[in-house]
Structure formats: structure tokens, C-alpha cells
Amino acid sequence: MQIGKTLISERRIRRRVRELGAQITSDYQNRDTVLMGVLNGSVCFMADLMREISLPVEVIFIRLSSYQGTQPGEIKVGSDFGIDLSGKHVLIVEDIVDTGSTMKFIIERVTDLGASTVEICSLLDKPSRRIHPTEIRYAGFQIPDEFVVGYGLDYDGLHRNLRHVAVLEE
Ligand code: IMP
Ligand code: MG
Hints:
By secondary structure, the chain is of the alpha/beta class. It has three helices and nine strands. Helix 1 (10-27) packs across helix 2.
């Protein structure tokens, strides 16, 4: 497996993240907002997005895992969901929505913890493989059914540190 063609350049990512941050800033005025990043994939996106949001927001991270190589597996919670979210407006920050299983799982738990609203902000949206219908309030880019790496996204733990999003090739 190796890094293939660039799907989304560093420049396009930067521009889009700025737009998303501006939209979120205007939508979340006067709300107790929690940005909830899903580790490890959201690390680059969160770091950039949070600095494009001009509001006081809480930033927290949760850890789950659902992929083995390029194959989806069972979702496991690797970090504590034992936080009180009552009255909070939670914005889940994710690298990519693929089948929608991860988002379904998180939204159910966040709702159980008393959040007033729960919305999704995902850098990438791969709609072709969706199993669970998922409303992505803030989506960076729609991509075709290809396995991608970079800007937080990995293949077997590698390539998260690329500045752009690339297709993984055999
Ligand atoms: P879902 O639960 O099927 O929506 O999968 C979501 C998770 O799978 C994402 O948070 C990613 O970590 C991982 N994933 C899905 N597609 C890709 C990909 O193309 N590259 C890297 N990770 C991916
Ligand atoms: Mg992820």
C-alpha cells in the first residue's frame, strides 16, 4: 500500500475549514458549546477548526475504534463517556463519515448524557457506503468510495501526518 493521488490539497482544506469555522461561529452564538473530537482521526481537523471558531467553546476528545486496516470492524469505546452534557450544545468533530455506524453510536450516547442539541461536523463525507442515514450539518467535502489517508486519516496507524488528503493505492 502506498500514497496515491492527491484528492484534496492542503490549500483547499485550509479554505474549507475557514468557511466551516465561520458558519459554526455564526450558528453557535450564546450557546454552551462543546466540540467533541473523535480520536485519533479528528486531530488535525480539530486543531485547525477550533482556531477558526471565534466563540468560547469547550473542547473534549473521545476515543473509539472501528477499523482494522481498510475493513470496518466492531465499534469499541476506548475512553470515558461519563461526562455531564446536560444543557450543552454538542458538535461532534469527525474526520470522515462512512457507513454512519460511528456517528449513530456517538449520537445515541451524547443524547443519553442530556445534550440539548447534537450536530455533526465532518471533514469528509463518503455517502456511497452509508448504512445508517446520517445528517451531517457541517460537511467539508464529499468524496467517492475510495480509501483515503492524510490530515488525520490513517491506514494501519500511518499517514495521519500528511498535510493533504490522498488516495491509498495498492
Ligand atoms: P463509519 O462508522 O463507517 O462511518 O466509519 C467512520 C470511521 O472509519 C472514521 O472515523 C474513520 O476513522 C474510519 N474511516 C472510514 N473511511 C476511511 C478512509 O477512507 N480512510 C481512513 N479512515 C476511514
Ligand atoms: Mg474516526
